[in-house]
Amino acid sequence: MNYHYLARQPILDSQERTYGYELLYRDSEQNAFPAGLDDEKASSRLFYESLLFDGTEKITEDKKAFVNISAVSLLQKIPDILPPGNLVIEIVERSLVNEGVVEVIKALHAKGYVFALDDYDGKSQWDVLEPYMHYVKVEIQNSPLETARHIELVRSRFPTAQIIVERVETYDDFDSAKLCGADYFQGYFFARPEMMQKINLNPAQMTVVQLMALATGDSLDYQRVSDVLKKDIGLASRVLRLANIACKTRKQEIVSIKSAATFLGEQALRKFIVIVSVSQLTTHKPFELMRLALTRALFMQLLGEHFMPKRSDTLFLLGLLSLLDAMLSISTDEVIDTLHLNPEFATALRAYEGELGNILSIVTCIETNDWSAITSQPLFNYDNGQDPDVFSINYQQACDYADELLKELQL
């Protein structure tokens, strides 16, 4: 599995509480900016390789995400590919400020994007940006007096902006910057940039993963699901095909996600989205992997009718997700991180613990024909009619239904 890399360095307030992170492009495990790489390439790669796929909220744990961007990338409106959210766009000091750049900043600012001016040098060329800058970043100067004068200059030129002091490397740097009235602080005195490694999915896989993340989230946003499906007509048609198979009695064909949700209900739609997503991810994998995933999901749904009837649909989703590591050739932790799975799913997949995890454990025991392990499970109880023969019958039912569904889907 290939990976992409980035680093993050915390930005703290005067009480040394983390306010946000500056996100830094990396192209390897080496925690350093790649030699010979220009601002434009670094900007676009950070946005397209990391932020677009991983989401700034996930990377920064919902704190502010400060991201450097070049003038060229601004003119290409690259920030527009991400929602404003917690994003702070840093205009680097090497940028050329011209009418085109100012117009793009103005337009993005009107959409709710927040800007910071990086490494402010006091030159008058930046004055035109004053109405749009929420933050101005300055470096610690050679002496506390010079730092104070520099911060005073920022206050006079950008009266409404908050000031972030960079390259804080000692307590004296921190103390003097605080006394000068700086709002936030960044530097080696607090922490060096922390490396982060993320899986590298191709665009087609990423579309599928985005879809699965939506389908397994707390609430299903039909509009966002529709927007993702627009990127892959094949995926969309297969989801709607499943919806129409489930609604054979309808005379009118279901042609949209919204109408599918209306006639199927949210839980059924979630299941169909994940089925199609899993089938897409197993295109270049052995067919038996898809069959096993679907059989496991259907069997877990049947077990849910015995153990927890109100959660059978949730168990179906967990069954499909439990083999996603094999489908993507990544670890379970990476599956959890990539899909932003909730703690209950994470615990079930990692440790087979909790209500959902206990069911998953029973399923894996049945798959390996380990009946002695099944009867020792905490949920198993002969007195409640949980006979292993019943589970064996249910497993065969799941296998048969999986084969039927795969045939109908032409997989």
TrEMBL record:
Gene3D superfamilies: EAL domain (3.20.20.450), Hypothetical protein af1432 (1.10.3210.10). Keywords: Kinase, Transferase. The keyword Transferase applies. One of its GO terms (molecular function) is kinase activity. It comes from the Bacteria. Residues 1-207 form the EAL domain. PANTHER family: CYCLIC DI-GMP PHOSPHODIESTERASE CDGJ, PTHR33525. This is Histidine kinase.
